[in-house]
Amino acid sequence: MKKAVAMLLAICMAVGLAGCGGGSEPGAGGGEGTTIEHPSSIVICASNSGNIWYSCAVKISELLMKEFPDMSVTVIEGGGDANIDVVNLGTDAQLGFTSSTSLVPAFAGENENVKDCSNVKALMSVQMSYAQTAVLASSDIHTFADLAGKRVAAGTYGQVAMYTMNALLEGHGMSEADLAGGAYQIVSPSEYPDQFSDGHLDACHINGNLPMATLVQIDSTDPIRLLQPTDEALEHILEKYPSFYTVDVPANQYAGQPDPMKLLAYDGMLIANGDLPGEFLARVVELIAESGEEMFNRGSWEQCGTFVTQDNTAPEVYDLLKSKGSVS
Question: What is the Cα–Cα distance from 217 to 50, expressed in whole angstroms?
Fold first, then answer.
């Protein structure tokens, strides 16, 4: 009798332990009976609240918590270069957003603003950012060359907007030193509308979706238009900075913009701490790519692997992207 009781207790304990793996989700991402190991909590560092990266991160958090009900997901503010260091460490955030213009040179050891990315994995492109240099439609500025001696804002130092504007000026044989006062006007993009209405700015540069809310606000009172980079400038930038690409943009994005354009663009990318389980990371990519969310406008299988390589991502992520034709 005692032996029977002891055997029954042993069986119950074994069954109980088998069901206590709190770091995995039965049936997720691969059909009935499969198990994906995952953390109990995740923090995603994004951008300033109100920015498109933050909105994307919130949507990703919703997808993850629906897929893994026992996992909590928190979104915090951050910035492109800084997020790489934060995710690399993995203490304050384990997933994050950065730009291809920050990540590609960081992996090549050419981003002086990133301390360490040795434990960072590129997961996928998620969202496209258009590089937009705007002037009032009534302005006498019609080309980038016309910016010489003008008051130009490109966000604050360290932001991707300034990096992008530097590349555009360089492509046109110019630099920040050619602007009024030999430097940018240091203005937060949220202040652009007031700066234009008060007559303190001649031009501004901003990266993001199209049309951009900040520029729409200006456009609603004073029509604006965007400056078209020359073909020579774009060719120079694409050759020197492979983290950019060009996009054809239809006319009438803003009230003062009657013609179609070709603009510089880059990707907002999702990155991960390399200590996270590879199967979990692959499932994160799959959830985003198959979500159909409009804001993930670079998150389709056709485009999400643009800046992902076998060397900079987890093997499970690379195998998934290769099976979908996202990488070669």
Answer: 15
